[in-house]
Amino acid sequence: MTDVRVRIAPSPTGNCHVGTARTALFNLLLARQQGGTMILRIDDTDRRRSTKASEEGVLEGLRWLGLTWDEGPETGGAYGPYRQSERLDLYRRYAVELVAGGYAYHCYCTEEELDQERKAQEAAGLPPMYGGKCAHLTADERAVRTAANPSPTIRLRAPAYDLVFDDLIRGTIRLGAGLLGDFIIIKSDGMPTYNFATVVDEHLMQISHVLRGNEHISNTFPQLAVYQALGWTPPRFGHLNLQLNPDRTKISKRTGAVYIGQFREMGYLPEALLNFLALQGWNPGDNREVFTLAELQEAFSVERCTQANAVFDLQKLDWLNAVHMRRLTVAELAQRVLPFMQGAGLLPASPDALALERLEHSVALVQERLKRLAEAPELLDFYFAEPAPAAEEFDRAICGVAAERLGALAAWDHASVEACLRGLAGELGRKPAELFMPLRLALSGRRVTPPIFETLVILGRETALRRLRGVAVAG
Ligand code: GLU
Fold first, then answer.
1. CATH number, domain with residue 415
2. Which ligand 1 atom sits nearest the alpha carbon of residue 212?
3. pTM given for the model
4. 43 lines ligand 1 (CB under 6 A)
């Protein structure tokens, strides 16, 4: 193990978002590639919005994708606990230290006071920033203000110099002196703010690199101020590009699917989604596009992470999904399709060996053209349930004679049914396609199906003959 230590810090306030998954993937790739350690930390200091169910959902989404971590809330590790809500004493201890050292101070300003200040600044066309009312209170003044507001916040004094860091993806990023106001590190309810807790954790967990979304660039400056006040060395930061819809709006649940669970339900393979997410913010420098997680670990480098925003192109995802589905063995693909067939009521919760065999056979026929697993029930339903009567005209005579001939076959296999039906077409003076269409309609209720001979074999003699005879006597 090297001393590369990376982390993701999801907030358990909702479902597992693709942005979270992408950040997790990139950190994992960096860790694996450098022989480092991946840490999962739960950022649950927002007590009102954090839930256990969300924490479980986020972890389950990441696991479904095949992402792993070496240290975390359930995994354990030498730097725990890994939930921020279980580390509150640590944050308080360092906040007290900062106050004692003069780097931070108690702020008694009420919400209303701060609100008024903000409005006045806005009206004057100034950026909102704490004016420093409580920054230099005497002991007497503090006593008076404590009486009025017994639960002060704690603010860090913003440094009077430029804050600069060398972003791994974006190069030097700077915030000029005076542009960061004194900011809250402990809220009035005693909880740390994100910018404070994250620094304490990064340091105590010995995090060496932080890859995260570029919406956090502005947070990096207050975080740098905390590192400096505590005399700690910051990790290296790398801020990933934004993921945008093709129309350049930011992806969100209002504009489309953004949660891992949604992609799972739509029938994307985790392998394909991971592959897609990797290409949203990184490129291999050549024209390769199809990668497994193991191949990504080989090929990844932070230097090749892109600054330009990524287009969240579902057609690309569909294409990758089809590619990854074709790479599966038929047995594997059938296993992946199974829950969708069960969800559609086409297969029972515990299908018998015969049903599974039929699933494998039928899946093999559509493997080449399946784009998402969720399409399988619609393509394959008639192998597992009686077809709905087709609106088209049935050809009773053809079905009757085909049933008779097929019914006389000694063996029910591809070669036998093919020879039988081709012979029949010749006898009737019809082109094979003309004969097969009415049979296809009778067997499946539709005009487009996988090849007719395979279909007959998969359905089996009994079912196939019953459906043909059913049409022959109908009307
Ligand atoms: N909880 C924060 C988020 O999910 C973590 C940000 C970070 O990686 O520092 O956005």
1. 1.10.10.350
2. 8
3. 0.93
4. yes
